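[Meeting: bench + compute handoff]

Bench side (C.D.) handed over the final construct sequence. Compute side (W.E.) agreed to return the predicted structure before the next meeting so the bench team could plan truncations. Sequence as handed over:
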Amino acid sequence: MPAQVPDHGEITVAIPMDCTLVAGKVIDEAGSAVPGVWVFLSGQDGMLLRDENGNPYQTKTDLNGKFTFACVTHGFVKVTTAADATAFQTRTIGPQGWTDVVLVTQSTAGNVTVVVTDRATSAPVGGAQVILTTPGGANQVGTTDVNGRVTFTGVRPAGLGQILVTAPGYLPASVPVNVPATGSRTVSVPLDPDVAVQFPAAFVFQLDWGITPKDLDLHCSGPDQTGGPRFHCFFGSRTPVPYVALDTDDTNGTGPERITISKVAGSYVPGEYHVWVHCFSTPPPGFLDSGASVTLVSLDGMNLPTQRGRWAVVNAQGPENRLWIVVQITIDAQGALTATNVLMTYLAGTSNDVL
């Protein structure tokens, strides 16, 4: 950088550098030095950082557990050690450098058991997804058994983490957890009901697809309130019964098309509802390149959706044909829903066929 040289005396010129010092130490839980272990620097993408010659930033700790990287490029840096993959520190560094890095290794590990229950009844909630986030930011995922329990073994590092629980029919819940260095800890997580799922105001099937083929059609059949033949909701009969309606017939690609199942006098018409998709476009059938999906949501009183199921045509089995048979569901009068038969197959047929 330019500087004015005096005719006598001296001047001090600060020269900004594009790289700077990163240094620190590796210790164990007791605070003792951990000598002779590898230390690495990596970027936000998880890949090892490299110097101007293409060499990775890696070094070993000295007898005092200390390490030094003399010239590290400015930016995001993650410092890790081979002594314990869960011990790391991150920072975005500039000209000031980073000289107080401390990596604490942990030779032991603890266990965490999560018990999930219904807050109102104290009944266990099976099938709940549990995400344990450790103090280092890593996630472990498990599912509760019929007793509402799931255990994570060998968890480290110790310290304050988080448990996030989701389950069908319930609102998500998160609680802190102090992960033990050794031994076990049990955490109870009560869940509150999700009104949109347990007491739905309506159900909606939504068909989405890409720009080709131009015309896919959503179909639904189900019980007739009067005891007659099954209704058939599609573009040719968009409101076949007062409690089921198709919103639109999209003939130009992408969708969506939606079929809504509503209550009658405060209750649903109970029975089995069948959902399928017909490829109306010519030449047929066009499903494999469509990217089509059918999503089922329930709505609460504010029309906010909760996903109850989603099926993609890419997972359909068998040779492609005109009809993509998606799913059969059962709804009782109160709105309890069961996916009785996830078919995901193809059949020959026309838009007038009732399944």
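W.E. noted at the follow-up: The mean pLDDT is 92. C.D. will use this when planning the next construct.
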